[in-house]
Amino acid sequence: MDLRNLVGLVVLLAILGGPSPARAQRDPLAEARNRMVDRAIVDAGVKDARVIESMRTTPRHLFIPAKQRQYAYLDAALPIGHKQTISPPFVVAFMTEQLEPKPEDKVLEIGTGSGYQAAILSPLVRDVYTIEIVEPLGRRAAKTLKDLKYANVHCKIGDGYQGWPEHAPFDKIIVTCSPERVPAALAEQLKEGGRMVIPVGERYQQMLYLMTKRDGKLVREKLVPTLFVPMTGTAEAQREKKPDPAHPELVNGNFEESLENSGKAAGWHYQRQLKLIDEAAAPAGARFARFSNNEPGLGAQALQGLPTDGQKIKQLRVSLSVRGQDIRPGRFPYQKASLAIVFYDVDRKPVAEKFVGPWSGTFPWRRVNRTIDVPTKAHAAILRIGLFGATGQLDFDDLKVEAEPR
After folding, report:
1. Alpha helices, DSSP H only, in 83-165?
2. Predicted TM-score of the model (pTM)
3. Which residues, at least 6 apart from 18, have a Cβ–Cβ distance to it below 8 Å?
4. How many structural domains compose the chain?
5. Residues 189 and 315 placed together within one structural domain of the fold
6. Dihedral angle, C-alpha 390, 391, 393, 395, nearest 10 °
């Protein structure tokens, strides 16, 4: 969505200033937070009442740098400095629910970041032990958690790849950064019968797993495709397959591949109101992606990350097939059916946003081709497709991205 329009909307919700108590009833942003929880978490399928209550009462804005606080109650990842981000609220709620936190649990978190995930867990479990490898972030998070009186959260600066053996074993482990494979130390420090939620995979193609320890071994269950910052330190040094920022490529742009037993498109992250449709008349192959939405303002989208080096790439050539039925704008002018590419610098701050579309009304399959300039500061990009709050039905197929070198 257009950041300039977005600022005008969310600034009305943001009351910036000094620290305030964590209790929602004394928090002037409680209304904005409850609205976010209702629309982005409850409506998206999170059901655990304890998790939902923690999301309602935890002041996310106090875990975000002051310049970003006006966006605190959007369901979006935000930069927190030092090349790190705070996860979208839905992701935090979903991972927490999958962990099945119990009041007697001792939980290990890898990747403290802002401290927000630890704060969400704090009222749900006995103790949270959280590790952050980036010292300035770790110290800032520890201070925030202490100031807000999360007394059962214990912070440490260190490499989460090694876990925290002094306090092992843990009933639950949650990892908020992505290694290429599960660190052996974490598997060892998880209790028999314990649960671990962890994103694993390549830099821009990851799967969120639920792992349960049975007979000393981890049993894996695929949850959803996801996109997290990489686990740094030892995990990153040992990464075998690394991205090629001079040659970005989309995965499953024709939507032929799906995740088994889920109906979700492989390779695409944070899917909302997306269905894979089998149809002989599909422009490419036998399947395409369909976004449908009847409620103005409700999210219907998917995204995919791309390594993109603006020093090496001049332009991206985007091509796709698209079809629409009764598409209308959402509650606000920026909520339009479109394709968007957001470029980020090395610190994961947005430097430009480019659009293909928007689309409206009803129209048959059409082929669309666009050439998009890549900012020289670009280090990565996120391509998003969908209705983005608009209503109607929007179909995508045969989506391709090709890079033109400088």
Report:
1. 89-99, 116-121, 135-147
2. 0.85
3. none
4. 2
5. no
6. 10
348: alpha, beta or left? (left if phi > 0; alpha if psi -120 to 50): left
HSE, side-chain direction, 13 A CA sphere, residue 202: 12
The amino acid at residue 239 is R
Q: How far apart are CA 279 and CA 335, in angstroms?
A: 28
Instruction: Give 324 or 83, the one with higher predicted confidence.
Output: 324
87 tagged catalytic: yes
By the 8 A CB rule, do 243 and 229 touch?
no
CA distances 178 to 174, 226, 369, 376, Å, are: 11, 10, 34, 27
**Consecutive H or E run containing 196:** strand 190-201
Which residues, listed in sequence order, are joined to residue 328 by a DSSP beta bridge?
A: 391
Tokens of 223: 């949850």
Shared domain for 278 and 196, answered yes or no, is no
Reported as a single tens digit per residue, the pLDDT across 286-340 is 999 999 999 998 889 999 999 999 999 999 999 999 999 999 999 888 899 999 9
Which domain CATH number covers 158? 3.40.50.150
Whether 20 is covered by a domain: the verdict is no
Taking the CA atoms of residue 250, residue 256, residue 260 and residue 262 in that order, the dihedral angle to the nearest 10 degrees is 80
Q: Which of 54, 87, 122, 338 is catalytic?
A: 87
Instruction: Give tens-digit pLDDT for 25-68.
Output: 467 789 999 999 998 999 889 999 999 999 999 999 999 999 88
Residues in the chain, overall count: 406
| Cα 119 to Cα 110: distance, rounded to the nearest angstrom | 14
- Residue 379 to residue 79: CA distance in whole angstroms: 14
Residue 61 CA to residue 58 CA, distance in Å, equals: 9
Q: What is residue 245's DSSP assignment?
A: T
Angle between helices 89-99 and 49-57 (to 10 degrees): 140
Of 294, 203, 190, the closest CA to residue 248 belongs to: 203
By CB atoms closer than 10 A (0-12, 13-18, 19+), residue 137 is: buried
Tell me: do 105 and 179 sit in the same domain. yes
Nearest Cα to 403, choosing from 305, 316, 309?
Answer: 316
